Amino acid sequence: MFEPKAFWTVAMGRGLLALGAAVLIVGPALFSIPQLQLLTQFLSLLVIAIMWNLLAGYADIVSIGQHAFVGIGAYAFYGFAVFAGLNPFIALVMAGATALLFALPVMLVIFRLREAYLAVGSWVVAETLMLIAGKLSAFGGGSGVSMPVSVVKELGAQPALRYETIYWLSFALAGLALASTFILMRSRVGIGLTAMRDDEEGAGAIGVNLIRSRILCFLWAAPFLGIAGGIITLQKLRVAPPASFSITDWTVYVIFIVVIGGIGSFEGPIIGTIVFFLIRQYLADIGVWHFILLGVLSIAVILVEPRGLWGLLRRIVPQDLIPVSHAPPRRRRAQTPDADKAPSPTL
Amino acid sequence: MLELQSLYRHFGSLKVIDGLDLSVAKGEVLGVLGPNGAGKTTLFNVILGVLAPTAGKIIFEGREMTRMRPWDRCRAGIGRTYQVPKPFSNMSAYENVLAGAVSGGGLPLRQARDWAMEVLDLTGLDHRTASPAGSLSLLDLKRLEFAKAIACRPRLLLLDEIAGGLTDYECDALLEIVQTVRKQGATIIWIEHVIHALRRVATRLAVLYGGAIISNGAPDAVLADPKVREVYLGVEA
Ligand SMILES: Nc1ncnc2c1ncn2[C@@H]1O[C@H](COP(=O)(O)OP(=O)(O)O)[C@@H](O)[C@H]1O
Ligand SMILES: [Mg+2]
């Protein structure tokens, strides 16, 4: 059945996404340094939001300790780039690897807990790691430390070039996060995760290994969060416990983003991050009120449509914009109208 | 094929399953009767591992699985339907079945697609493939429960009250599906209040009451058993 209105909403949505991607690709040619920095923040936060959505929206790991992995990534990046003297690009990869390494013991602790206990447990773990980071005198203890200029220069001789490089790094990370998570969600594992999202017990009963799925998601998220932490460090040019392990920036805002955009959907975090930046840019003048506004908006969205803005839009848009779900295959044989044909002979 | 040995499941002081012994042979269709609240659904939850037994053993195909997780039991060959349907509401009917085919069924995606379509055809959902499961009618939801279970390619299929509220025509269609699944080699345990439906396919009946099996054997003999007439049919007769 061809429904013109449905067709146009999908086409328009996809068109907007493509336009957004195109703007990001030509970004460095169009934008000033501050604008490019803003886009870098946008892309880094998008990566963090995609990962929190994977955990909370699908695997039912409602973590409020995400900032731990961003912070670990930040410190590891600093360590590998400054103390070990590695090339910043390699140091970023190492930041991801370090976050993955930390994810293993953290998982052993928090996976013993469920629901509210898991949330509190993940927060306790994150705060503990932040306190430990504050004791590392080589990293400036509680007040942190700046990146030496020599390391920063490896990204480009002039500031403009450096910011462009950092922008491309965040662009590549976001692209990788989107593409790989898309492939994950399209795979057999992803079908199981989507079933888990809708009904956990039901998913277990049809053979979805809930424990293995949770482990996979947790380990999937960690390196992306770690590398994002490294990129954020490159942008801020310093590490410090409260900033690198910021619960507000890397967990609370991210929860707002995913909840507003639409938890448990692929489009949700993208829409949420866009809305978040629009609110922050245009309403930053109202100070702490923009924080309160985000909170109120999140609650309002949950009350109206638990699946967020994307859930609302989905009432008029009949399809995924990014097709993670599986459409039934087209029939090879012509469909016969008689409903009571003989049942198929093979089981 | 399935062996339940002195199985107990208590909820606090409520002894829902209380020393139950039951064995099911390959190829059987065992009909399970019992008044509401007798513990039939609880029995399925224990067999699939959603609930742990308070005591007792579950042996499937010679392998003890009392401590196995539900998904491992599903992969080992046990499929079930839920009395109250548990659809994956935001996925299409096709994806619901596909999820069973790739997870419990263990099929690679390409084969799972074809298999899911076959199962949807078999269960009469072929006109609903693209509909979100959350938008299906109760009848279609029951079909979807059946379809999801079959998609897992179980050797033992547990059916929990799938015929309630069907018209005669729908009931016949359902029986035909059950027969097809059985001919293809599945062993079936079917909890059902619709006795005339059970009688047409069951090779054996068992009556659950007071946490144990009080009567067990050929359908006619069980239905004529005075104990059964008293506790179960007595209400209706
Ligand atoms: N998870 C549970 N917690 C407490 N009581 C339960 C639970 N599941 C079932 N019961 C109780 O066990 C009894 C049997 O329930 P059920 O197995 O659903 O019966 P049936 O399917 O035979 O109608 C009921 O009294 C019910 O309230
Ligand atoms: Mg029941």
Architecture of the largest domain in chain B, CATH level 2? 3-Layer(aba) Sandwich
Number of extended strands of chain A = 2
Cα distance, first to last residue of chain B? 35 Å
Which strands sit side by side, in order, in the main sheet of chain A?
1-2
Helix content of chain B: 25-40%
Q: What's the rounded overall pLDDT mean of chain B?
A: 92
Tally the structural domains of chain B.
Answer: 2
Give a short synopsis of this structure:
Helices cover 71% and strands 1% of the residues of chain A.
Description:
The complex is a heterodimer of chains A (347) and B (237). Helices cover 71% and strands 1% of the residues of chain A. Chain A is an all-alpha fold. In chain A, strands 1-2 form a two-stranded antiparallel ribbon. In chain A, helix 2 runs parallel beside helix 7 and helix 7 (159-186) runs antiparallel to helix 10. The longest helix of chain A is centred in the middle third of the chain and has 28 residues, at 159-186. Helices cover 38% and strands 25% of the residues of chain B. Chain B is globular, with a radius of gyration of 17 Å. In chain B, helix 3 packs across helix 4 (109-122), helix 3 packs parallel to helix 5 (138-151) and helix 4 crosses helix 5 (138-151). The N and C termini of chain B lie far apart (35 Å). At the A-B interface, helix 8 and helix 9 of A face helix 2, helix 3, helix 4, helix 5 and helix 6 of B.
